[in-house]
C-alpha cells in the first residue's frame, strides 16, 4: 500500500485529481493539506481518516508517506517538489513544472540524485486523439513532422481575475504559462521535436484594466500578459508557431494543434482529430472514429504516475522535458521584453 499526501485541495483537485486518486488501487490517501483549513477539512471527507494539515512542511516530515501530489498555485510547485524529493517522497505535480528555468533544473537534478519519480501533469497526452496520433507517429506514418502550429485562444476566459492566476509573482505569467504548457508540450511530444534552439515571442496586456461583463474592474493584481504569440525553432530544423490568450476579439474559443509531415499531416482542433494524406495526387482528410475506452485524461495521467512509482511502467513524461518547456516559456517572455530572438543551449 503506497501512502499519499495531497497538497493544495482547491479547484483542480476537486475537478480532476480527486477522481484519479479514488480510481487508483493499492494506495491510501493518508494526509491532505491546504493553506486554507476549510478546504483541507473538505478533502478529508473524500478520504475519511486522512490527517489534516495546513503546513506542507509538517506533512513532509512524515516518514510513512511515499507520494506527494502538488496542486497549489504555480509558485509553490518547485518549492514543495524539491522539499518533498529531499524528504524521500515520489512527486506528482500540477503544471507548470516551475516558474523559472533554474527551479525546473533543480527539480530535475534532485529527482535524478534521489532516484525518486518526479512527474508533472501532462493530461492532454492522454486523450484518445493524442494517443492515436502518437502511435501513428512512432510507426512513421507522418514521415518527418517539420512545421507545426498550436494554440489555445479564448474569447473571454481570464481565470481568477485579480487572484493568484493574474499575479506574476505567484503564477509566473498569464496564458502562456497557464495554457501554453498544455499545447506546446503536446505539439513537441506528438512530433518528437523536443530540443529548442531559438525562441521568439511577443506578449500583450489589453484586458487587465477593462471592466468585466458586470461593468466592474475586479480588485486585486493583474500584472501578467493576456495574450502571447511565439515561434520556436528546434535543433533538428523543425519549427512551431504558437498563440495563447485568455481574452481575444476573435470568432470563438479554440484549442488546436496542427503538424505538417513529409508523408502526412494532422490536426487536433478542440479534441477532434483529422489526418491529411495524399491519395492519387490529392490531399484527402480522414476523421478516425476513435473509441473512447480510456478514463478521463487527468485520471490516466495519475494512474500512469503510480504505475511508474511501482516500476510497472517507464515514465512517458520526464523531468528533462519539463526543463526544456520552462526554458521555452522563459525565453518567450524574455524575447517579448527585449524585442529580439533568444538563443537557447
Ligand atoms: N492540468 C490541468 O488541466 C489544470 C487545470 C487547472 C489548474 N491546473 C493547475 O493546478 C494548480 C492549482 O490550480 P487551481 O485552479 O486548483 O487553483 P486553486 O486556487 O483553486 O487551488 C489551489 C489551492 O492551493 C492552496 N494553497 C496555496 N498555497 C499553498 C501552500 N503553500 N500549501 C498548501 N496549500 C496551498 C490554496 O489554498 C488553494 O486551495 C495550478 O498550478 C494550475 O496551473 C491544472
Automatic annotation (TrEMBL):
Segments forming domain GFO/IDH/MocA-like oxidoreductase: 131-256
Gfo/Idh/MocA-like oxidoreductase N-terminal domain boundaries: 2-120
Domain of life: Bacteria
Record's keyword annotation contains Amino-acid biosynthesis: no
InterPro entries given in the database record: Gfo/Idh/MocA-like_OxRdtase_N (IPR000683), Gfo/Idh/MocA_oxidrdct_glycsds (IPR050463), GFO_IDH_MocA-like_dom (IPR055170), NAD(P)-bd_dom_sf (IPR036291)
Keywords linked to the UniProt accession: Oxidoreductase
Stored Gene3D superfamilies: Dihydrodipicolinate Reductase, domain 2, NAD(P)-binding Rossmann-like Domain
Transmembrane regions listed in the UniProt entry: none
One matching Pfam family: GFO_IDH_MocA_C3
Name used for this protein in its record: Gfo/Idh/MocA family protein
Organism: Paenibacillus septentrionalis
Amino acid at each position: 500500500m503506497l501512502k499519499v499526501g495531497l497538497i493544495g485541495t482547491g479547484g483542480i483537485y476537486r475537478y480532476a485529481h480527486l477522481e484519479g486518486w479514488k480510481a487508483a488501487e493499492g494506495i491510501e490517501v493518508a494526509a491532505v493539506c491546504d493553506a486554507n483549513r476549510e478546504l483541507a477539512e473538505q478533502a478529508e471527507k473524500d478520504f475519511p481518516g486522512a490527517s489534516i494539515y495546513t503546513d506542507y512542511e509538517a506533512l513532509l516530515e512524515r516518514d510513512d508517506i511515499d507520494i506527494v501530489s502538488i496542486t497549489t498555485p504555480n509558485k509553490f510547485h518547485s518549492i514543495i517538489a524539491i522539499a518533498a524529493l529531499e524528504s524521500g517522497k515520489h512527486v506528482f505535480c500540477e503544471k507548470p513544472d516551475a516558474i523559472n528555468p533554474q527551479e525546473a533544473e533543480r527539480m530535475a537534478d534532485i529527482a535524478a540524485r534521489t532516484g525518486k519519480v518526479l512527474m508533472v501533469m501532462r493530461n492532454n497526452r492522454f486523450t484518445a486523439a493524442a494517443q492515436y496520433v502518437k502511435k501513428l507517429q512512432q510507426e512513421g506514418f507522418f514521415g518527418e513532422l517539420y512545421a507545426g502550429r498550436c494554440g489555445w485562444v479564448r474569447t473571454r476566459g481570464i481565470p481568477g481575475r485579480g487572484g493568484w492566476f493574474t499575479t506574476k509573482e505567484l503564477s509566473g505569467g498569464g496564458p502562456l504559462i497557464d495554457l501554453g504548457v498544455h499545447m506546446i508540450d503536446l505539439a513537441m511530444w506528438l512530433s518528437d521535436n523536443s530540443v529548442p534552439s531559438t525562441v521568439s515571442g511577443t506578449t500583450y496586456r489589453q484586458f487587465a484594466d477593462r471592466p468585466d461583463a458586470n461593468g466592474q474592474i475586479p480588485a486585486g493584481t493583474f500584472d501578467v500578459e493576456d495574450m502571447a504569440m511565439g515561434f520556436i525553432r528546434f535543433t533538428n530544423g523543425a519549427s512551431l508557431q504558437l498563440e495563447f490568450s485568455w481574452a481575444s476579439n476573435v470568432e470563438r474559443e479554440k484549442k488546436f494543434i496542427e503538424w505538417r509531415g513529409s508523408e502526412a499531416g494532422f490536426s487536433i482542433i478542440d479534441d477532434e482529430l483529422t489526418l491529411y494524406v495524399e491519395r492519387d495526387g490529392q490531399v484527402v482528410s480522414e476523421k478516425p472514429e476513435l473509441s473512447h475506452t480510456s478514463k478521463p485524461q487527468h485520471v490516466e495521467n495519475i494512474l500512469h504516475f503510480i504505475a511508474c512509482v511501482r516500476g510497472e511502467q517507464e515514465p512517458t513524461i520526464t523531468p528533462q522535458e519539463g526543463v526544456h518547456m520552462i526554458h521555452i516559456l522563459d525565453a518567450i517572455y524574455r524575447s517579448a521584453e527585449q524585442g529580439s530572438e533568444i538563443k537557447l543551449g
